[in-house]
# Entry
Amino acid sequence: MISVYRGKSASDLHVPEGENPLVRVRDLAHLDEVLEQSPLSQLEREAVRRAAANIERGRDANILVVANGALFRVELADPPRRMPTPMVPARNWQTVERGAAVSVSHPDTAWANRAATALRFVGYSARAIEGGPVLAVETAPPLVLLAYASSVTKELIEVASDRCAVMALVPRGGDPPPGAHGALMLPLKLATCAGEIDPLIRRARSGRLRLGKATPRP
Amino acid sequence: MVLDSDVRRDILILLARGASPAGTIAETLDKSRSGVSQHLSHLLSADLVTCEHRGAQRIYALNVPRALAAWDEWVEGAR
# Structure
């Protein structure tokens, strides 16, 4: 809605309180035709048109003209509020493999710790790995190791493949490294983690990570 | 950030297993009842949990979509 008011003096550029607008149009497209039938002077109309040029289409505003159009002021209303995006209830966000051992390896140890904590919320027995993932897999292999893509090396795959599943943490725009059993795209989205990790846990448990070579794990 | 508190994170992890009264949460986490109540207030204000009165008890439960979004934000917030 665009409303046009006539100010009382050049020293007070505020919309006069309690006063009805001289012109009111639903949107800018209709302003010109309504202006022509308004009690505004030709100079005031010109001022209103100049003021209107500063108003974004679809935006509500008050236009104040004073001193026969020598001055004008635009008061923009608050931008239209966007309706909040409804939160879709997450389904299957919790793991069905509650308590399964999952480790997180990331060059940013703080990130790894946070991700592991978040994965505990999903239901895993998750921990962050400090130091190299190869050593961690050799000493205490989890069922699934989430490892940052650049650390998913041939050596890691060889060490891990019959001990645990290696899931690459792939940064935005990156490609999953070859040899990984799966990939999680970053940034991490907890709502979908279980859906990605659980099948690998089942594969690791059933010894189907490398057919014919793995032995089932408890 | 609400999840910067390890107690609040532990509360959410606990509530992920099911709704619970404040007393049980405090007992399970081995924290004082008043301390846990304060943390629950923070979580309520952030809309990460809901509270339902059942008789004399207040039962707290996860607001799952909000909680998941908060965890996502918290994990990436470290970077």
